[in-house]
Amino acid sequence: xxxxxxxxxxxxxxxxxxxxxxxxxxxxxVRDLDxxxxxxxxxxxxxxxLLRYGRPIIGDQYWCMPYGPVPSVSFNIVxxxxxxxPEVEPFAKSLFSEYFDVSRDTRYPCLVAKRDPDLEIFxxxxxxxxKHVVAKYGRKRATxxxxxxxxDPVWSIPAKSRSHEMSSVEIPYELFFTTANATDMxxxxxxxxxxxxxxxxxxxxxxxxR
Length: 210
Description:
The protein has about 210 residues and is mainly α. The protein has helices at about 15-25, 35-55, 70-80, 90-100, 125-135, 140-150, 155-160, 185-190, 195; strands spanning about 60-65, 70, 100-105, 110-115, 170.
């Protein structure tokens, strides 16, 4: 009998959760929330929630890049907003403008929250994980967080296949489960993949609410 191959694990990206998670970080006392620190906090939140419940919070696709794992769509949106790129997707720009100012008083531009996050978009478990990430990582500098991810198999394994220091490679979600006692959560994520399937050609979707 021929063995059936499982589809790669994918999740739907939700820009609303990206905005609210970053607003939560900013309103919880996280300082110097620049692009690098924001992406690392999102990584730690997604990984923690994956290992606890078999799914991430944001649902982005991660790439192995020089400074650690990066949620790609989130990074592009935040970068374009911080850099005032006129091509940033209108719905995302509207949401970010509603919740954030950009401070340029530090070495790197930082997100500064203008209003409290809307936590109704999250489950209780997601809020719990976000609080855990703030408590554990929120006071660390961006470079410290980047260094921490370099010792994580989620980054170190795909990093070996990068062609040179500045190249990037996609990180399969399966790598998030390369830790002790994570087999059950991996099986849960794989079992639920069919419910998330969207023609196996789109790895994530920018939901605009329209």
